[in-house]
Specification:
The protein is mainly α and about 240 residues long. It contains nine helices and no strands.
């Protein structure tokens, strides 16, 4: 979840200190493909070793830490493969880790009481996550391949680009705030669901739901404020060259 910390992140900041201040940054590092141990590496050293733009790293780390909602303008087209891989890793995290964790806790609550409301909670969450999966599938199968083709057309001399009429603007319009519907489920669990012998399960479920909401919010911000503007610029270059 968003974690507010006091460290001002700079290129010379030791990454281990950032994680000690905000353990949630371990998730960001994982999505970047960065493995522990971090030793005494600074942001700039770690980014250099892993081919990551320092400004991109600091923007995302600041977002995860709750210290800034602003994104750097110092990104280049060469950052796009890193951003795409980050988002793909995020998708896998949602489907392979977060969803099974939440569903297991809902079923744990259901097994202890089997009340009708818990059955409805499970049904609601499954329907909600089916929408999330559909959203991720659209990005994996339509958006990311499109961005990759654009990138290749820009950087590879013999790469062909066929303009099929799709644009990043269509993605922008299609991009729903998939985290918003979680509010109904959280309100149900906090305000209305009758208390049974499930307080521990309910607390852990709420923690995971808040984490999922935060994860999805960060994911959307990266797409809206980092990927989309960069791809829009790249479109102009590629489509200008092909005319």
């Amino acid at each position: 979840m968003f974690h507010f910390c006091d460290i001002q992140i700079s290129p010379d900041t030791k990454v281990a200190d950032l994680v000690l201040e905000n353990p949630y940054l371990a998730l960001m590092l994982e999505h970047f493909g960065i493995a522990f141990p971090l030793k005494e590496k600074t942001v700039v050293k770690l980014c250099t070793e892993n081919g990551i733009n320092v400004d991109l790293f600091i923007s995302l780390a600041s977002l995860f830490s709750g210290t800034s909602k602003e994104f750097t303008n110092n990104l280049v087209f060469e950052d796009i493969p890193v951003i795409l891989q980050y988002l793909k890793n995020d998708h896998q995290y949602f489907t392979d880790e977060k969803y099974p964790q939440i569903l297991a806790l809902i079923r744990e609550m259901k097994s202890s009481s089997n009340q009708e409301e818990i059955v409805l909670v499970e049904k609601f969450f499954n329907e909600y996550f089916a929408e999330v999966v559909e959203h991720l599938k659209y990005e994996n199968e339509i958006v990311f391949p499109y961005v990759t083709r654009l990138y290749k057309a820009l950087h590879e001399k013999n790469a062909a680009y066929a303009d099929n009429g799709y644009s990043v603007e269509e993605y922008r319009e299609h991009h729903d705030n998939i985290e918003e519907k979680l509010s109904d489920l959280k309100n149900l669990l906090i305000k209305y669901l009758p208390a049974k012998d499930d307080q521990s399960s309910r607390r852990r479920l709420l923690t995971h739901l808040f984490e999922l909401e935060s994860d999805l919010t960060i994911h959307s911000k990266i797409e809206d404020h980092v990927l989309v503007p960069l791809v829009a610029q790249m479109e102009k270059h590629v489509k200008g060259k092909s005319q």
